[in-house]
Amino acid sequence: MLVRIKDKIKKIVYRLVPPPYVNESFSQAGEDRCIDFLFSALNIKKPSYLELGVCNPVIGSNTYLFYKKGGRGTLVEADKTLIDTIKKQRPEDVIINVGIASGEKSEGDLYIFDNKGYNTFVKEEAVFREQNSPNKIIRVEKVRFRSINDIIKQQFKTHPDLLSIDIEGMDYEVLQSLDYTKFPVPVICAETCTFSETHKKPKNRSIETLMLSKGYFVYADTYINTIFVNENWFNTISG
């Protein structure tokens, strides 16, 4: 009887105060722990970051772990209704309320859903998501665009250590527009599967093909997201 009581107490304490060997993660599928393993091995303790498409600044975030560790960066979110929450939970990060453009457009239509994680600038993607999920478009708003190159130039001395991108249907175009010569970002985490309401999400290989052509290799893949590492940077810093 006494042993069972002790076991119950241990379980309660474990839930309230997890032991130090428990690796905390905030990402959707542990992406932040994979990236943290890489940075820790290379003695990068407080990495800088640029996150495109924030939505929730904590839950499902690939950068919040690094914020907790003392890293700082820039968060970009197109939906203005999410900005106050992001600022409250990430007060020491730079928060920018714009969309990210891959071309010359100065603004675009943001299709806003009742589930904010579904928001997208791509009309065809918005229609597809509404038709294939219980979530609905509640309004469409004009949002100002900025380029990824402009944001990096304005917000970083050189470039961020980490780029996390999840902008619902525009990931490939924006990654294609990044100037890799001027801004050879060491680590890029990108969503590489297409939309689905089930876990059976078709894999999009176009981003992987693009990143390989830009001198990156696949460091880790959680199926939902792929973590790409700049090969020149890796060989230099780990050599």
Descriptive report:
There is one protein chain. The protein is globular and about 50 Å long. It is built from 9 helices and 10 strands. Helices cover 32% and strands 22% of the residues. α7 runs parallel beside α8. It has a domain of 167 residues: Vaccinia Virus protein VP39 (Rossmann fold), CATH 3.40.50.150.
Q: If classified by CATH, what would the architecture of the domain at 24-100 and 148-237 be?
A: 3-Layer(aba) Sandwich
- Helix/strand/pairing category: alpha/beta
Mean pLDDT: 89
Radius of gyration: 19 Å
CATH top level of the domain at 24-100 and 148-237 is Alpha Beta
Cα shape:
globular
Number of strands: 10
Pick out the low-confidence regions.
none
DSSP strand (E) fraction? 15-25%
Strand order of the biggest β-sheet = 3-2-1-7-8-10-9
- In sequence order, what are the helices and strands, one letter per element? HHEHEHEEEHEHEHEHEEH
Give the termini distance in whole angstroms.
Answer: 57 Å
**CATH topology value of the domain at 24-100 and 148-237:** Rossmann fold
Provide a count of the helices: 9
Tell me the major beta sheet. Answer: 7 strands, mixed
Task: Provide keyphrases for this structure.
10 strands; Rossmann fold; single chain; 22% strand; alpha/beta; three-stranded mixed sheet; 239 residues; 9 helices; seven-stranded mixed sheet
Question: Which helices and strands appear, and what pairs or packs with what?
Answer:
Blueprint: H1 2-16, H2 31-41, E1 49-52, H3 64-68, E2 73-76, H4 83-89, E3 94-96, E4 99-101, E5 107-113, H5 123-131, E6 137-147, H6 148-155, E7 162-165, H7 171-177, E8 187-191, H8 206-213, E9 216-221, E10 225-230, H9 231-237
Helix pairs in contact: 7-8
